[in-house]
Amino acid sequence: MTTVLLASFLSSLWTVAAVLDAPPSSYLLAWFGIVLALTDLRHHRLPDALTLPLGAALLLLQFQRLGEAAFGALVFGGAHLAVRTWRPRFMGGGDVKLAAALGAILTAPLLLPAAILSSAVTLAIAAVKGRRAVPHGPGLLAATWALTTL
């Protein structure tokens, strides 16, 4: 059942990206995003085996604007690292690495909206699940996909 849902959701994201003539990063983010979000929701982990290749691939896709991509990765990842350092129980190390990876495809004007939207998605997940401690990775992934694709 999980495989069917995963395939259905992935095909939906790919269809939307295709209709909107989205950049290649949208397709890559959809594929990795679904797998990472499900892993984080189920195990509260974002494995390096997925986040690091995603980050490298997203950075490589931005070769024409490498300076801006590195800036976005540094700022978005750095902001999450600051939260992780200040309140370690609020955010895991995988969230910091994922935020740095996603920052590579977020332009400077999208960094603040991405932070706000990802927090809103995480709060919505907490409300639906009825828990205070929920993973932040799905919120980061959903917000970044939406802001870079739609």
UniProtKB/TrEMBL annotation:
Pfam families: Peptidase_A24. One of its GO terms (biological process) is signal peptide processing. Residues 28-126 form the Prepilin type IV endopeptidase peptidase domain. One of its GO terms (molecular function) is aspartic-type endopeptidase activity. The chain crosses the membrane at residues 98-128. GO terms for cellular component: plasma membrane. Keywords: Membrane, Transmembrane, Transmembrane helix. Belongs to the peptidase A24 family. PANTHER family: PREPILIN LEADER PEPTIDASE_N-METHYLTRANSFERASE-RELATED, TYPE 4 PREPILIN-LIKE PROTEINS LEADER PEPTIDE-PROCESSING ENZYME. This is Prepilin type IV endopeptidase peptidase domain-containing protein.
